[in-house]
Each structure stands twice: as C-alpha cells, then as structure tokens.
Amino acid sequence: MKEVSFGQYYPVSSFVHRVDPRLKILFLIAYIVAIFLAKNFYGLAACAFVLLLVIAFSRVPIWKVLRAVRGVAILILFTAAINIFFYRGDSEPYFRWAVFAVYKEGLIFSAFLVIRLVLLVMLSSMLTYTTTPVSLCDGLESLLTPLKWIRFPVHALALIMSLALRMIPILSDELDRIKCAQMARGANFESGNIVKKVKAMIPILIPLLISAFRRADELGEAMEARCYMGDKKRTKFKKLHFTWRDLIAFLLIAALVTGVVLLRIYLGGVI
C-alpha cells in the first residue's frame, strides 16, 4: 500500500491546486474520453503533452506521479502480456508456440494500450495530489446537485467518498505499523511459497480490520457529538467560484478533445 498514491494530497501552492475542484473532476472525465477516443499515437502524444503541462503547473514532483504507475505496474504488465500473446494479426507471426503467437499488430496494440493506461493512472493521481478530500467532496456534491430533485442522497455519497479517500493513507500507515510489530515478534512474510505467504498475512489483516472498524466507530461518535445531521440546512465555509484559471483549464481540455477527434478522423487507427 506504500505505492498507493490515490487519496494522497501534496500540499503546495500552484496554478492547478487553485483550479475549481468541479472543473478538475470534469477535466479528468473529459481526459478519459479523449484517451479512449485516441486511435493513433499522435492522439496519445497530444494527451501526454497535456498531462506534462498539468504536472508542470502543479509543482508536484514527477517521481510522485510515476509512483502511481508503479503501484499498478503488475496489472499493466499482465494486460500487455495478454494482448501480446493472444492478439491475432494479419502478418506473419514473429513467434509461435502452441496457442501463443506474437504478431507485429499485437506488439503495436499492446504498446498503445500500455501508454493509454499509464496516462490514465497518472492524471487520476493528479486529481488527488492537487485537491484536498474536502474540496473534492464539495465539488462532487455540487456537480451531482441535480440528482437531489429525485431525492438522491448526494451529500451522503460525497461524504462517503471523502472519508474513503482520507482512510487510504491512514490505513496504509496502520498496515506498516502492524507489519513491523509482527516482524519484531518473529513473523516472516518473505520466504515460502504463495500459500505460506497468504497465511502469513492473516495476522496482519485481522488487526487491520479491527483497527478500521474501531476508527469508523470513533468517527461516528465524533460526528454525533458535533450534532451532524446530514445535508439538512447545511452551509459551507468555503464557496466554490469559477475563475480565469478554470476558463484556461476548460479551453485546454476542449482543445485536447477536439484535436484527438480530428486526428482520429484524418489519420485513422493505430493498426
């Protein structure tokens, strides 16, 4: 869980940090749409350029953003391997053994897919790096306000997501403390086959679950002690307002989506 960057906030004053959280959420959604609309490497290059701009103006160290990719590296490599060995192309295969075959089209498609996933993970991590959980909760609640007309519990959903984001780094630190305590008592988590390693995790998972339930109980009591009554007649300490920064971010993502669509129309697909 040390590799989990989602839910961690990087406190620094920057252009991206001061962008309205509602626009950040919409920016991420539009960026995901642009990534999946891209059908060639030129479209992915445009997406990568926008990502580099966001990182540069956020003042978040590049190694912290790359750490988010390292956390899901196994999933990305597994997805790439599946596409390399099972993607069937029209050309002669470079390698064939039983049901496995490596085609030129499979290599190109796998590289395209890996780049797409890396860009997606990196920008998703930037959302939480540059937005506090409270601001993210307020932005999400504001965007989902129309659902209140059908009596959807928008505030409760936003609060749950905010608390979940806060708990990710807390549970990560708790896991490290429990693991160090178990290792100090002679526990071994490195040697043995996979079955033994899974069994060795039981002394860690049980205290972690107990700690999570204890924290949830204490949080509930703290909210009741402060007379928390949900979204009934609630006011906000900070009001959300769109500024010139939000206009620049909107124009940037609009230009990206438009450019990706034009590249898809005029240049076609990657294969």
Give your account of this protein's structure.
With 271 residues, the chain is mainly alpha-helical. It has a two-stranded antiparallel sheet. It is built from ten helices and two strands; from the N terminus they run ααααββαααααα. The mean pLDDT is 84. The chain has helices at 21-37, 41-58, 62-71, 73-86, 104-129, 133-143, 154-184, 194-200, 202-225, 244-267; strands spanning 95-97, 100-102. Helix 2 (41-58) packs antiparallel against helix 10. The protein folds into two domains: 1-131 and 237-271, no CATH class; 168-230.
For the structure shown, list the relevant keywords.
10 helices; 271 residues; mainly alpha
Number of strands: 2
Task: Show unreliable segments.
Answer: none
Strand content: under 5%
Number of domains: 2
Mean pLDDT: 84
Give the CA-CA distance, first to last residue.
Answer: 37 Å
* Sequence of strands across the biggest β-sheet: 1-2
Mind describing the biggest β-sheet? Answer: 2 strands, antiparallel
Which word captures the global form? flat
Summarize the helix and strand pattern as letters. HHHHEEHHHHHH
Q: Helices and strands: which structural class?
A: mainly alpha
Instruction: Give me the number of helical elements.
Output: 10
Helix amount, in percent? 55-70%
Please tell me how large the radius of gyration is: 23 Å
Secondary-structure blueprint:
Elements: H1 21-37, H2 41-58, H3 62-71, H4 73-86, E1 95-97, E2 100-102, H5 104-129, H6 133-143, H7 154-184, H8 194-200, H9 202-225, H10 244-267
Antiparallel strand pairs: 1-2
